[in-house]
Design brief:
60 residues; 0% strand; ShKT_dom
């Protein structure tokens, strides 16, 4: 919700503040996966973790 609000209303200022507005969680289970160690699990390539749960894993 806030991600879209930021994209719509403060793209320039958010980018200037260092926020990557393209960094998102694309899977609905990211919160649960992160709580169970997904973000640090080297079994999954970093690009996969970034693409699926980059925001919550702080990978982008």
């Amino acid at each position: 919700m806030y991600q879209q609000l930021m994209k719509d209303n403060c793209r320039e200022s958010c980018r200037d503040a260092g926020y990557n507005l393209n960094c998102v969680n694309t899977h609905p289970n990211c919160v649960y996966w992160a709580a169970n160690g997904y973000c640090d699990n080297l079994f999954y390539p970093e690009q996969t973790r970034r693409d699926t749960c980059g925001l919550i894993c702080h990978l982008c």
